[in-house]
Amino acid sequence: MPLIIETWLAYDYTEPTDLLLQIEAALGPDQRVIEHGIGISPVEHFARMPGHDEIGERIWLRVGTGELRVDYHAVVEVNRPVADIAALPFTEPHLLPGEVIDYLMPSRFCPSDLFGTFVQTEFAGLGGGACVAAMRDWIAANFSYVPGVSNASTSAADSILLRQGVCRDYAHVLVSMARAASIPARYASVYAPDVDPPDFHAVAEVWLGDAWHMVDATGMARPDEIARIGVGRDAADSSFLSSFGIAQLVNQHVSVTRG
Amino acid sequence: MPLIIETWLAYDYTEPTDLLLQIEAALGPDQRVIEHGIGISPVEHFARMPGHDEIGERIWLRVGTGELRVDYHAVVEVNRPVADIAALPFTEPHLLPGEVIDYLMPSRFCPSDLFGTFVQTEFAGLGGGACVAAMRDWIAANFSYVPGVSNASTSAADSILLRQGVCRDYAHVLVSMARAASIPARYASVYAPDVDPPDFHAVAEVWLGDAWHMVDATGMARPDEIARIGVGRDAADSSFLSSFGIAQLVNQHVSVTRG
Amino acid sequence: MPLIIETWLAYDYTEPTDLLLQIEAALGPDQRVIEHGIGISPVEHFARMPGHDEIGERIWLRVGTGELRVDYHAVVEVNRPVADIAALPFTEPHLLPGEVIDYLMPSRFCPSDLFGTFVQTEFAGLGGGACVAAMRDWIAANFSYVPGVSNASTSAADSILLRQGVCRDYAHVLVSMARAASIPARYASVYAPDVDPPDFHAVAEVWLGDAWHMVDATGMARPDEIARIGVGRDAADSSFLSSFGIAQLVNQHVSVTRG
Amino acid sequence: MPLIIETWLAYDYTEPTDLLLQIEAALGPDQRVIEHGIGISPVEHFARMPGHDEIGERIWLRVGTGELRVDYHAVVEVNRPVADIAALPFTEPHLLPGEVIDYLMPSRFCPSDLFGTFVQTEFAGLGGGACVAAMRDWIAANFSYVPGVSNASTSAADSILLRQGVCRDYAHVLVSMARAASIPARYASVYAPDVDPPDFHAVAEVWLGDAWHMVDATGMARPDEIARIGVGRDAADSSFLSSFGIAQLVNQHVSVTRG
Fold first, then answer.
1. pTM of structure
2. What number is the ipTM of this complex?
3. C-beta of residue D240 within 8 angstroms of C-beta of residue D229
4. Of B121, B144, B157, the CB nearest to C163
């Protein structure tokens, strides 16, 4: 069953500003974009760039003063197998391929270097997928989904104590824990149905058994109904909109439905 | 005048451990490795991987219990032009090439998202190379080189207040400031003579005028006498040794002299 | 010229809650309360307690569900001399009286232990009142008054980098700096005219020349036009309302005019 | 059975320095000081001050350059009843006496404002002594006593993630948790036998059933074998030695034995 995605954004700029936009579902073997279109109000400059890790695309925009409107729609067929996370094997670090090494390292919002003893204490004796599944369940049991508690500078080290947050925070905590257990983990910006309230969504991806696997610690979305936009070490790399100047939100709407 | 580099490391492991080693001068157009050799005591596994951004190489090792000894020597001719940083032009973000975009983003030890107002206040009216030069001079004027104040989890946000630290901290602060001014910046792990006390060294690299330029906020090293080992978003990406387990330092020696 | 103070608060409680209220101008030699009155909607429990350092009073309330309304008015004559801060002498720590020792120590929002090198670098050679005056001027020059950037968990260590905030943040930064220079400093919750937008206000108090002196780093208020409500190590001690449960703001109004 | 306490300190000062010393067992109804004596090498100034909350005494010293030597011995009979913490009743905040209110508030190393959701999640349904006992047991189960992981600027928010530390960190975490559950809690600097390695020790004190009760989250000491030196909101208030300048540790020895 395909996903039907509709997104509108409107931001107001009081002076000419550069910005980086990443809102389109990525092309890839595990999700087929059947149709899509993006409309952007007149800008001074437009250039497509590959996304982080060559997944999806980022668009450089240079806007003048006034309102920027972006309108995106797509129909995406997701054919991503749903793995039994708990059954996936652990790959010892020295056998990991070069391209996932960076995902073992701490990042701005996933300071995994601080999670070592925590992970060893809380998930002692577990490895690989069984460990990730236990982490996901631990977060589900201990966190409450509460908008407004966290903000753009909240890291997983803050969240582990606050125990409240939104999808971004849930993903950051799971990514941090996985890395602290020597499992490469990244952050994915995605579209998914049933996200409540409807908005851009975020999940963790962990490298187990020679492939990336999506894990949604909020429990809102299933890997076979998730359309990936982009990935990165954490939210810093795959924000849907990064303004290099002051932007004022006017309106934002995300709708994802099953076709 | 070539640089002659000698490095010995000895670490003790009480159980089999995976580790990532990056201590060799990178090959590249701006530094020619005339001769080099690395010796490693017997290990269970050895695999070379590209470094971050395909610069230099990282080596995966699996060691058994006991002492790991590493012995590296090289002769490197550096032919890196020394730019007048202050004269280099600013590239507006929307004109930046895709491969430097990630270096605008905050990272574990360079939380540049927190430096916005600071940079706008302290370096108002400056852009591009003039701004980076002012940042370098500001750090030189306000920081003291004091070993032991910072540790492996110290970030630039800590350092900006502590105003003390070592080369790692100086580089992190400069990288954070540059990114906050929309200038791509990365961290480079390097060898340089005159580092006191002799040790691995670290500098910032900023993207100005379509190229990376080294800037050493400690003032200890000049770009034409620096041999780059590896680069990354911050120290997390280009550590000379990352142990995925417990390592006990036995001995470490770095010597860099002019040939 | 007396200050005329009018304050209304309305909060909604969905379950019975304990709370601590401190909104009345304190009695004291440097401010005379000519008339005052407080009205509180019906509560289950009401008990007056001395404020921190025996300055002003805190009221313990136990409220049931529903709306709590508080209405306070007062006329206060301030006869506090305005000292020339820069001319006040430094008292060496070992000569400080016992009751100010705690105000040399770091607190939740004033982690002065982290400000040592910063203060020594930025204010080298200055001591006592001259140092405090320089700190006040430095903050005025480097900070912008911007509501919404900081929140209830923002500390002076955050603010020193953010360089934006409200009166609470300005006071926390000045208190932290003063303590780092071995000058006892406390936080005062106050009323003052000309605060824009009108609200509760906060200033620092420093111990110089054997007395406490108010310093408003925002520059909005003068000591001879400030009515002190309470004091403490930082905002944690002299919040106008601490709810031990969930409170929903309905309405809040503060007006301070010259009589 | 009395405790026999012997403490020697030697610090070196390269310039005249002010310092605050607090190492003597406090007098009080729950511990009787049978004999005691303190010897201090010649200093320029010596003045006794009451400790925080009038418990014990702090000594202001002004030392010249050279070595400061302090030698303290005491015999203390502790007659503190050992309460069954889990059975102690909760006092609702609005019934708390004025002198314990400050101990509900967050402090430098006990940022209890950040522990709210954590405590509500982890200790749901528990109140008063039962809650404190559960907190103590949770810390014992999840923390490892590891010197060298924490330092003088480590707060309970750091420790809750690191899950390693020394007595100071254990006490800070327990104090933070208790305050977040609306139970007044303070930090006590103490002497106790069986501390391993022998050193100054620290425990939490919680206000339950109208009295302070000691709780040692490390499990090393029992309330009836603990001699209190001083108390405070956290380690900032009851450090055994605060130097307002640079001090170099020469030697330090603490011995506590049963008489």
1. 0.93
2. 0.96
3. yes
4. B121
